[in-house]
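Please decode residue identities from the backbone states below.
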């Protein structure tokens, strides 16, 4: 069994992932320089609108590039994993028993990835729009000179800002003191604005891209194990183990309790539970676990 473990150390090659991260770093820089540099002091509605349109076009281009990055990457990951699984299945005497449309499995995954990417990238535009809206509001509402030069981080939450300003007035704080206070407050609480927001969670774009890449390559691998096993009439898979040796392993990885467990793909085994999405890696972002084809004869 240990022999089968090594073959799944497959991850996107560092150089390839770097390409993807660079695409997101570039758009982040673009937004920082062209959108998030606008302050209530220098906000001009016409100019802001033009910049927003330009940002929209950039984000659209990014989406196409990212989708183009994923297609061959997922396809080759799946194909490579499939070859390895088939070699292993043949070693234990399995033979192809039915046809499986691997291309369809790959295409379905790519469609899901496209949706994820479109949604994530669109959130960057939503953030940019939200930011400009706040700047506009700030320019209108806070005519106070103290606020004119503050950047978006300080005006994101109007109520908080109002309270801080009121306190500052009561305490007779200087403009610099107010600025410092607001900066500290917002930085501590919200970080920066140039992020991707998905399902209520915020991510740094390049980190998000890397996480999606890892997760999806891992998923392609699991799909290949399941697809090839079906093709070879091999119903059992074993959940990999890499934390087991560590005494604290249950605290290290949420899927640690699944390690070394055997599952039935079809659910027709009376001995092993059915494999569901909850036992199919990736179980969590950056999950390093995988499934291996398995058969009782491997036990001996
Ligand atoms: Zn895991």
């Amino acid at each position: 069994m240990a022999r089968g473990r090594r073959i799944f150390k497959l991850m996107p090659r560092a150089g390839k992932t770097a390409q993807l991260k660079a695409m997101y770093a570039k758009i982040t820089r673009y937004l920082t320089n062209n959108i998030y540099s606008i302050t209530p002091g220098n906000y001009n509605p016409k100019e802001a609108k033009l910049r927003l349109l330009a940002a929209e076009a950039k984000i659209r281009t990014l989406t196409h590039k990212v989708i183009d990055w994923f297609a061959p990457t997922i396809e080759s990951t799946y194909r490579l994993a499939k070859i390895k699984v088939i070699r292993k299945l043949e070693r234990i005497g399995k033979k192809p028993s039915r046809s499986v449309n691997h291309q369809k499995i790959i295409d379905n995954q790519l469609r899901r990835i496209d949706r994820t990417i479109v949604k994530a990238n669109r959130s960057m535009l939503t953030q940019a729009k939200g930011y400009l809206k706040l700047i506009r509001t700030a320019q209108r509402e806070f005519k106070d000179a103290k606020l004119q030069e503050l950047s978006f981080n300080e005006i994101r939450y109007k109520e908080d800002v109002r309270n801080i300003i009121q306190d500052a007035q009561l305490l007779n704080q200087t403009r610099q003191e107010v600025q410092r206070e607001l900066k500290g407050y917002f930085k501590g609480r919200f970080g920066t604005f140039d992020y991707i927001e998905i399902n209520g969670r915020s991510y740094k774009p390049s980190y998000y891209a890397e996480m999606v890449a890892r997760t999806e390559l891992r998923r392609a691998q699991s799909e290949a194990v399941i697809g090839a096993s079906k093709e070879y009439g091999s119903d059992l898979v074993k959940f990999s183990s890499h934390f087991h040796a560590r005494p604290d392993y249950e605290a290290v990885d949420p899927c640690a309790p699944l390690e070394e467990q055997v599952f039935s793909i079809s659910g027709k085994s009376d001995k092993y539970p059915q494999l569901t999405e909850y036992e199919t890696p990736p179980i969590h972002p950056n999950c390093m676990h995988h499934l291996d084809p398995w058969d009782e004869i491997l036990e001996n």
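Observation: Residues 2-146+194-234 form one domain.
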